[in-house]
Write a structure and sequence with these properties.
The chain is an alpha/beta fold. The chain has helices at residues 21-27, 42-51, 68-78, 93-104, 124-137, 178-190, 199-204, 225-241; strands at residues 10-16, 36-37, 40-41, 56-63, 85-88, 111-116, 139-145, 150-153, 158-162, 168-177, 211-214. The protein is 37% helix and 24% strand. It is globular and about 55 Å long.
Length: 242
């Protein structure tokens, strides 16, 4: 999977098209990525990190149907000093990533980094480590080790304790060899497999191994009102540490 010694071309997809049903029920249907955190929409926090990371060539914001104008307006207000591309996402994560990949395929990069905009605490180190790791393995994801004890149930009773030493909570970014992921998407469109929840699973079912980038406990995904309160606490503590 190694592209050699030349500097790789890396593009990024920022996913902002999710339905966020658990959060939308509490916000009257408003997209969670437009909720404010520290005076800015949630998705803007990750966009700032991506925009200021020098190794990224193109950044594509994948937005929810009907929200293209407000997403563009929020981005323009930031004056981040670079151009962005935009594409309407689909109802499912796979469709949103697929549309982003198709947009990039006309001038395809070596690698593509995919991040959920509902994870506002993306760091430069996560991006840099992901780019290093993907050049070794062709695919990698940020993840954190589990600290809780996990039990398996038969539906009524607990029947087994799972060894947590080898279990991880998957986060984003997830980063891939572009052609490899594009081919996996094309195959999935022809022969969809039930139960696929992210792009790593697409490659896992084809026998590929996924590189691991250690993440951070603060790299939370905001999916509930409680998560938003937690994000506000993390944000305040981050400001205090600066």
């Amino acid at each position: 999977m190694d592209k050699g010694v030349s500097k790789p071309v890396v593009d990024a997809l920022l996913l902002a098209a999710g339905s966020g049903q658990r959060m939308s029920e509490a916000t009257g249907g408003r997209n969670k990525v437009l909720l404010e955190l520290g005076g800015a929409p949630l998705f803007i926090h990750s966009l700032r990190k991506l925009a200021h990371f020098p190794s990224l060539r193109k950044i594509v914001v994948v937005y929810r149907s009907g929200e293209g104008e407000i997403i563009r307006t929020c981005v323009e207000k930031e004056s981040l000093g670079r151009e962005f591309e935009f594409v309407e996402g689909g109802r499912e994560r796979f469709e949103s990533v697929d549309r982003g990949l198709n947009l990039l395929s006309g001038d395809s990069p070596d690698y593509v980094l995919i991040h959920d905009s509902a994870r506002p605490f993306l760091t430069d180190s996560m991006i840099a480590a992901s780019i290093r790791e993907v050049q070794k393995h062709g695919a990698c994801t940020v993840a954190t080790p589990l600290s809780d004890t996990l039990k398996r149930s038969d539906g009524e009773m607990l029947v087994e304790t799972l060894p947590r030493e080898s279990l991880y909570r998957i986060q984003t970014p997830q980063t891939f060899d572009f052609k490899l992921l594009l081919a996996a998407h094309e195959e999935f469109r022809r022969n969809p497999t039930p139960g696929i929840t992210d792009d790593c699973m697409l490659l896992e079912q084809k026998g590929y191994r996924i590189g691991l980038v250690l993440g951070d406990e603060t790299n939370i995904k905001v999916t509930t009102p409680f998560d938003l309160k937690l994000a506000e606490l993390i944000y305040r503590e981050t400001l205090e540490d600066k």
